[in-house]
Amino acid sequence: MSLNEKASAERLHIAFFGLRNAGKSSVVNAVTNQELSVVSDVKGTTTDPVKKAMELLPIGPVVIIDTAGIDDEGDLGELRVKKTINILNKTDIAVLVVDATKGMQKEDSKLIEDFKKRNIPYIIAFNKCDLITEKQNLSDNEIYVSAKENININELKELIGKLSDVEHTEKTLLGDIIKSNDTVVLVTPIDSSAPKGRLILPQQQTIRELLDIGATVVVTKDTELEVTLSKLKNPPRLVITDSQAFKKVSAIVPEDVKLTSFSILFARYKGELWGAVKGADELDNLQDGDCVLISEGCTHHRQCGDIGTEKLPNWIKNYTKKDINFDFTSGGDFPENLEKYKLIIHCGACMLTEREMKSRISLATEKQVPISNYGIIIAKINGILERAIKPLQ
Asked: pTM of the predicted model, to two decimals?
């Protein structure tokens, strides 16, 4: 991904829901002005969720999601409905498409209950309005449309745009910490797990935001950090490191220079930093046979020395001196049943939306399972947690 592209996880996620044959996919195609979804008179044409990152005027960069019919049937249909419900975890704005010739059904009402429960702003689009003669007075979040006749499609986009102004406020990684002309050193180790020829998303996003702020960005490897610091006329305002190098970097960076990690910054940006700090205390309570869930938001090829499946488990076992069991998830997979876990350790979630990350935190909180973050756990293991979170206090 180039620096001028907006990552999907940072885009507003607009998902379309509804019964089979309500014309949901036709409305999606009309709104996007693209053949994004296959449409047919056959029920259940849309199976798995269809996602498309795009520019949608007047809103800007978004991810449009078309979902399977919420009334799908059979064993496969049940799986499709489950995937549709899972999309709610990452939905910023929901559009419920209702067949205007049939009106609201019980499944539609159940979806609205889910929207409200999750605090998802929503619009009800009564499709096929060209086929009805009598129209009811609608609420502010309801609209009659016809995908076939292109009736009120622009008005629907404007309605989505109004909700997006409320829902999608710009957040900042460092804007409240760093100011123009500050110098920030980024430590980016290049090892076997580093992607060839590019920086990972947290590094890209941090660099871009610092440049927007007007700060001076110095990027170096951990092996060159000591030399890099010695060449600076004045100490940097902040050093940000890959969490895997925390121990080494902490020993090099003077105590009077603030230090944190990319993962910890993203814990604040996408999740709940202080809850994650509190969750790290559970490390000291783990016993033989306890199970810990380690979860990553991205899907990548596991290599020798992988941080999630190899390094973290080894560091935790060495720290606790206990025989701990570990489960691992990645990408969109996150278990609904968390009762078996004593602790959940999550990555910085750069590939997840804020809403999806916070839904995972809410689920853990509901099940009373402490949840923490890669960088916070690594800092605690190395005895530098207080120092690592100090810049964010």
From this structure: 0.82
